[in-house]
Amino acid sequence: xxxxxxxxxxxxxxxxxxxxxxxxxxxxxxxxxxxxxxxxxxxxxxxxxxxxxxxxxxxxxxxxxxxxxxxxxxxxxxxxxxxxxxxxxxxxxxxxxxxxxxxxxxxxxxxxxxxxxxxxxxxxxxxxxxxxxxxxxxxxxxxxxxxxxxxxxxxxxxxxxxxxxxxxxxxxxxxxxxxxxxxxxxxxxxxxxxxxxxxxxxxxxxxxxxxxxxxxxxxxxxxxxxxxxxxxxxxxxxxxxxxxxxxxxxxxxxxxxxxxxxxxxxxxxxxxxxxxxxxxxxxxxxxxxxxxxxxxxxxxxxxxxxxxxxxxxxxxxxxxxxxxxxxxxxxxxxxxxxxxxxxxxxxxxxxxxxxxxxxxxxxxxxxxxxxxxxxxxxxxxxxxxxxxxxxxxxxxxxxxxxxxxxxx
Length: 408
Ligand code: CS2
Ligand code: MG
What we know:
By secondary structure, this protein is an alpha/beta fold. The protein folds into 2 domains: about 5-105, 2-Layer Sandwich (Enolase-like, domain 1); about 110-375, Alpha-Beta Barrel (TIM Barrel). Helix content is about 35%, strand content about 20%. The chain is built from 13 helices and 18 strands. It has helices spanning about 40-55, 65-75, 80-100, 105-110, 130-140, 190-205, 225-235, 250-260, 275-280, 295-310, 325-335, 350-355, 380-385, and strands spanning about 5-10, 15-25, 30-35, 115-125, 145-150, 185, 215, 240, 265, 285-290, 315, 340-345, 355-360, 360-365, 365-370, 380, 395-400, 405. The strands form 4 sheets. It has an 8-stranded parallel barrel with strand order 4-5-7-8-9-10-11-12, surrounded by 4 helices. Helix 7 (about 225-235) runs parallel beside helix 8 (about 250-260). It is globular. The chain starts with a strand and ends with a strand. Bound molecules: D-mannonic acid and magnesium ion. The site of D-mannonic acid (CS2) has 10 residues, from loops. Magnesium ion binds near residues 216, 218, 242 and 243.
């Protein structure tokens, strides 16, 4: 089973996606996701210009060897562009191996460790009424765990809050805008720290103690501010507080940890096991937030999650709309197979994306399942993809009131 052709497909159904297509000399097709939100074309170029020529003629069965070859032969290590490109190759090779074995991918990873994958949905609102409606909508859709984000009085535009009705597809919020420059948002840490505990108090009063609630701080706090927020949220029993600091400084989490028992989830912007070395070894987090797409594929994520398992740290794989259905399916197969599964984010793609990527994963009664088709169970329809050419898009960025750029 040698690789005969490799092609990169960039398409923009509801948003931009970068997909790698590998074909083998015996006619199988494997898919990998290489989408890096707002920097899509750099990964497309990395693959097309530097990786595709190296793949032709390689034995598609040699997944570990291909991973090590791409990682080490580049000389320049890690980084989101490199690791997304390697991830795309790795996932496409796993798709091929599972197809050649005639099995769904999770069977090759050791088989199912559970019946379904608890998923959390996104709820948000500009005020309490809108937030409660949004939570009810997710509950009606079957979600049994909910991420809660709200507007903050005194801040004009806040991460994670969907736009007013009519400006976007009815339930979804999509942070990347199809515009030529990043949109500017504003931030005020004191206003945020004052407001968020009152929101969780109101949500608990309305929806009771059982419902698992999550919150994404999106890298905006210093360690001592994060410690305070974790402490203030303890009465509301969060499932996790996510990305409370920009955690490049892994040691910063020690301070947060000393002060709060609110569980911590980190890592959607990380891309290797080394980014987690201190966080895991010193047990500074509870959930690993990496995406298969951004962390070197199934091969690397499996090692990362096995390492985390030694410390009772669980998975919380990143599942925003900027992971394509191919990347989403890769995460679901891994989730089903590993023992230390925690929860899976499920933001739900729009209809146009679902026309381009035919999927077999299911969502029922709050649980996702990767399905039982051979391979990943996702096939890209190239004709449909061609109808949606790439459109430049950027994530927003933040400024404080005095004009200083702040973490977004
Ligand atoms: C996020 C993402 O899903 C999440 O938790 O933080 O929405 C994130 O902002 C995007 O993936 C950025 O591309
Ligand atoms: Mg996040």
